[in-house]
UniProtKB/TrEMBL annotation:
Keywords: Signal
Protein's organism: Spumella elongata
Protein's name according to its UniProt entry: Uncharacterized protein
Gene Ontology BP term (one): carbohydrate metabolic process
Signal peptide, first to last residue: 1-19
Lineage: Eukaryota, Sar, Stramenopiles, Ochrophyta, Chrysophyceae
GO molecular function ontology, one term from the record: hydrolase activity, hydrolyzing O-glycosyl compounds
Length: 214
């Protein structure tokens, strides 16, 4: 009997927390969650570990050919069939530095969504310097044109002044798997190079080229 009031209080607090969290989920996201088409989290702001990966569990983004390893905050891309070592088990994939491991500076993450039906990852956040304004980032690997990886940014401006954003990328250390040569223009970054170690002495190294927007 002595524990009943405390138990009731704990249950009430838990109920309030759950209701408060549910109220923060955007309505269009909640519809997807209710159909079991998506998973929600309040943020993905965990610290990066010594290997350049998020210290929290993150969904791998990919399409069977391209992979943003360990989630959209990690510094590594992989491509199917592109290795950088002599044939061994396990094999070693050639690491490509990420170009779209993007964070919005001076912002506060308000929610993330993994849409498993459409293979898309969403992040929303408030812009601290622009009260009432917020952004949405979207990442997905194209399901038909499998060599295309997309990151979209949409900004919702609640004020009258123009919004300026600073985006930072997490490419990690330069790769030693591919001898990339870079060429940058106002809008695009082109990187081409060969893997440094062939899988067997009888075959040549693999040519890799990548174009991304600046």
């Amino acid at each position: 009997k002595g524990f009943a009031p405390l138990l009731g209080l704990i249950l009430s607090i838990a109920g309030l927390c759950a209701a408060e969290k549910a109220s923060r989920i955007p309505a269009e996201w909640k519809r997807q969650i209710d159909k079991f088409d998506a998973f929600y989290s309040e943020n993905d702001d965990g610290e990066m570990n010594s290997e350049g990966y998020p210290g929290i569990y993150m969904p791998l983004m990919g399409n069977g050919y391209f992979s943003h390893s360990k989630g959209v905050r990690s510094d590594t891309y992989f491509i199917a069939g592109v290795y950088n070592n002599e044939t061994t088990s396990p094999s070693i994939r050639a690491r490509i530095p990420a170009t779209f491991a993007v964070q919005v500076e001076n912002s506060e993450t308000t929610g993330t969504l993994l849409d498993i039906r459409n293979g898309t990852y969403y992040r929303r956040g408030n812009l601290v310097s622009y009260p009432g304004s917020w952004y949405e980032l979207r990442w997905y690997a194209h399901m038909q044109r499998r060599n295309i990886y997309v990151m979209e940014l949409q900004v919702f401006n609640a004020g009258k002044q123009a919004v300026q954003l600073k985006l930072t990328n997490n490419p990690g250390a330069p790769t030693d798997a591919i001898n990339f040569h870079k060429k940058s223009s106002q809008f695009f970054l082109t990187q081409c190079g060969n893997t440094t170690i062939p899988e067997t002495p009888e075959i040549s190294t693999t040519r890799v080229c990548m174009v991304s927007s600046n």
